[in-house]
Every structure is written in C-alpha cells, then in structure tokens.
Design a protein that fits this description.
Layout lengths: L1 H9 L5 E4 L3 H4 L1 H9 L3 E4 L9 H20 L7 H13 L11 H6 L14 E5 L12 E9 L6 E5 L2 E5 L2 E3 L4 H12 L1
Parallel strand pairs: 1-2
Antiparallel strand pairs: 3-4, 3-7, 4-5, 5-6
Helix pairs in contact: 4-5
Length: about 190
C-alpha cells in the first residue's frame, strides 16, 4: 500500500528502502514483496541505531512533540497514537533547515501547505450535531476534545465520551494570550 501511495503521488518508483532490522522488515513476506517490485533493501546492523541516524532523530523529535502535547493538555498516554499522528502532520507542514526553509509537504506536492485550519491539540471544542441526528430539543453541539486531523476526510478528529468522530463543523475555545505567546516562541525558536 505504501509503495502504491508513493508511486501514485510522485510518479516515481521506489528504488531502495533503508530500514532497521525490525521483524516487520525482515519477514519473508516483506522480502518477497520487495523482490517482486524490484525494490533493493538496505538493512542496518542489529543494535546500531546510529546507522539510520536521520530516522532515529526524527523518531525522537516526534516522540518529544507527542509527549509535550499529551502533557500540556493533561491527556492520557493511551492517546499516544493520535499525538504522534498530529506531530507528523504538523512536522510535514513546518519549514525545516534541512530543506532550506521549505516544508516537506511543499517538496512532496509542489506547493505550500495551507495552515489556516491548524488548531491546538487537545483543545476543548464543540462539534455540530447534524440535524438528521437530533430532535427539536436535543443539543445542537457536542463537547469534544480536538485530537488530530483526519487523513480520509477534510475534518478534525475529535474525542467525545471515549469515542472518535470526524467533523469539519467545529468551534474551538479560544486560548489565553499567554499560551499563544508560548506556542509562538516554541515554533519560532
């Protein structure tokens, strides 16, 4: 699936894939898949994460972002997947020195990403309940926590009563000015 995604998006074939020696990359099934698709594999030596330093550093960066987001909003570590997904989403839309101030999104798609829709992870918000799902006297909105961005739909991933929903019709509570200043410092440093 990843191979097809890459080839459809950038109209290029994967030539070489560099990975660690994780079981998912050393299985016969994966080896056969690479062989059938003409993908050369480079495996790092066992217990040598420095051989794949760029990836290891990015993993550390993403984990730090996720840990900060969960801690700042006092969310349970059980939502680490959502936090990592959001960290990746934000990282791909942020300028990076290794690309001379261009975003990974821009390199991949050829145009600057839109960022107007970005919101603070873990913010309290209210999602519109569609009129088809409510009666005259039901509440028109549902209190939720913004927990990320959907890959499949143009909307926010929201958490409400332990369930995930996706909605575009969302009103987020405003952050206090001092929190915004801290966030601005974090992203400009």
């Amino acid at each position: 699936m990843f191979r097809q995604l890459v080839e459809n998006e950038v109209k290029e074939k994967i030539g070489t894939l560099r990975t660690d020696n994780g079981g998912e990359f050393t299985s016969n099934e994966f080896k056969t898949c690479c062989s059938e698709n003409g993908i050369r594999r480079h495996l790092t030596n066992v217990y040598t994460p420095w051989q794949n330093g760029v990836v290891e550093r990015m993993n550390r960066t993403l984990l730090g972002m996720a840990r900060s987001m969960l801690t700042f909003k006092r969310l349970s570590p059980t939502y680490w997947v959502e936090a990592i997904h959001t960290a990746v989403y934000l990282r791909n839309k942020s300028p990076t020195a290794s690309l001379n101030g261009i975003t990974p999104y821009e390199v991949w798609f050829g145009f600057k990403p839109r960022v107007k829709h970005l919101r603070v992870f873990g913010s309290v918000c209210y999602a519109l309940v569609p009129k088809e799902k409510r009666t005259k006297l039901d509440s028109r909105s549902l209190k939720c926590t913004m927990i990320g961005y959907s890959d499949e739909q143009k909307g926010y991933r929201l958490l409400t009563n332990g369930k995930f929903i996706v909605s575009r019709d969302v009103i987020l509570k405003k952050l206090k000015v001092r929190v915004l200043k801290k966030l601005k410092f974090f992203f400009t440093s």
